Amino acid sequence: MSNLKVFIVDDEYLIRNLLKMRINWTELDMEIVGEASDARKALELIDDLIPDIIFTDICMPFMDGIEFSKIVKEKYPHVKIVVITGHDEFDYAKKSIKLGISDFILKPINSEEIRKLALELKKKIEEERLHIKEYEKVMKQLEQNLPYLREKFLIQLLEGELNPNELANKLNYFKFEINPDYNYFQVAVVDVSSGINNMEDREESNILLSIHCVERIRQILRNDKYTHVFQDNNRRIVLLSNNESLDIMDCCEAIKTLIINRYNCFVCIGVGNKVYGIEKIRDSYSEACVALNYKVVIGKNQIVNYSDITYNNDITWKGIPNKAEKIDFYIKAGMNNKLIELIDQLFTESHYCPGITIENLRLEALDIISACMHVLLEYKIDTSSLWEYPTKPYEEISRMDNMIDLKNYIKSLTTRVINKVHNVNEKKASTLIQQIQQYIQENISSELSLSSVAKKFYVSSSHLCRLFKKESNQTFVEYITRVRMEYAMKLLLETDLKVYEIGEKIGIKDSHYFSILFKKYAGCSVNEFRKGASNQQPGNKVDKLINTY
Question: With DSSP H G I counted as helix, E B as strand and the rest as coil, what are the percentages for the chain, rounded to 5?
């Protein structure tokens, strides 16, 4: 850091000389750049010198030090001012601190005090300069990232992520031009494709193509300050217009023609309706995206206005009602036959009507795949093992040009999805029943019931009943009875516990009921079982039970 500049203002020559001579300013990395005997002369010199530190007396001719300091701080707020005062003016000097004066010293002047104060001011100035440098660095980085931040703001605007306060602040910060006389907005979304078959090459080519097209469109609309061109999160080109005189359909037609001729690529554009108010831009954008998605139906190099979709008499077939919900249910329930029937219904000739093309059916197929993907994601199933082809299903569908291949592909795909989901369900069911069986064994002394166990494992009683029968080939009651009776047999064999004590050990407090249940299960009474265990008579029925156990 260069030497700090010091300026002295005092009507007493001795004081000025004392400040200059008694302090080694060079040692402090400072230099005296000027002095003045009154405030008026000082103000004339300061504009040229712009010092870092000013020492000034309070009592001076023409203008006192307080008024002088006020003028300097208003013009140069960074300058540090030290007021020199006498004992009688102490309270007066204290008030001067409110003006932003750094400090004051009392006469007679103490050189060591001046030196110490100068060092403190030096440290403060260095810290302030460091903060200024850091701030300038941040501002430079911000300026460099401004285009990115502005585009992020525009995307947030499209998606309706900003509250009114955030919106107002960012509109002002990014100097977003809005037509003050026209509060309508309209959005168009442009999708460009190179048409390259190779997936990896296609993606890279489409990204570069989109970047080139953005710049080209910006050139076309460079004189239109109320129409903004940028990319959304899907790298599609967005036109956001607030220009009353712009016919966006004509503009899109010109853009489409220019891009096709210049880049020899495919272009599809979706146009949303005009909306009133900047907060409704999201609606127009959503409509434009919906319109754009109809490229699957109407083909490439088309402009689709959202309003035309509703009233287009050529597109009358609506497909199967609640299709996604049905697919979701059939997959989760493992009802493959029902899903096959739905696909057959979707593709059967009886559902054809004028205007339905292979593109329509491709769109329906994509809907089925999307529903399948939703279930797979919900079940956290890896999709990579499902594809029979080296490419993903979306690509395969785009290549298929006949209904038979398309239908068979979808049937094969959904069957594999159902099998995957079924395996996951089977595994979950098996694990659940194993956990319940372990819980029953560990808590057999408790009063276990179907409802209490179902509640413990967050399933319905009816579902647990069906699942238990399916997985263990016995009912819940049969299993818990078997566990209790086998444990009772063990206790009868290994302990001298009384009947009621054994009943309590297996969760049956009623000894009479326990005796009845034991006899029904074992074919003999408790006493007969225990007596048989001690006698061990060959051929005895009880002996067989003991040996079996």
Answer: 60, 10, 30
Contact 375, 331 (CB under 8 A): yes
281 token code pair? 């831009």
Backbone φ and ψ for 223, nearest 5 degrees, come out as -95, 0
d(CA 243, CA 154) in angstroms, rounded, equals 17
pLDDT of residue 295: 64
**74 compared with 103, residue with greater pLDDT:** 74
- Model pLDDT, residue 352: 44
Peptide bond into 164 cis (omega under 30): no
Residue 353 pLDDT more than 50?
no
Number of H helices, E strands in the chain: 24, 11
Which residue blocks in 280-357 are alpha helix, DSSP H?
A: 281-293, 295-298, 306-311, 323-333, 336-347
- Residue 506: helix, strand or coil by DSSP? coil
Return the amino acid letter for 315. Answer: I
Model pTM score = 0.42
Q: How many Å apart are CA 419 and CA 405, to the nearest integer?
A: 21
Contact 34, 7 (CB under 8 A): yes
Query: What is the mean predicted confidence (pLDDT) over 488-509?
Result: 85
Q: At what angle do helices 39-49 and 65-75 cross, to 10 degrees?
A: 20
* Cα-based angle 168, 171, 173 (whole degrees, multiple of 5): 105
Average pLDDT, integer, range 157-162: 84
Distances (CA, A) of 471 to 64, 444, 448, 467: 99, 20, 20, 6
Q: Which residues of 413-438 are buried (b: 16+ CB within 10 A; e: fewer)?
A: bbeebbebbeeeeeeebeebbeebbe
Given pLDDT bands bounded at 50, 70 and 90, which one contains residue 282? very high
Tokens for 302, please give them: 């088309």
Q: pLDDT-based confidence at 145, cuts 50/70/90?
A: low
Amino acid 481 reads: T
Candidates 127, 265, 152; CA nearest to 206 is 265
d(C-alpha 116, C-alpha 23), whole Å: 10
Contact 75, 43 (CB under 8 A): no
* Residues 6+ away with beta carbon under 8 Å from 200: none
Residue 240 has pLDDT above 70, yes or no: yes
From the list 406, 385, 388, the residue with the least C-alpha distance to 397 is 406
DSSP structure class, residue 2: P
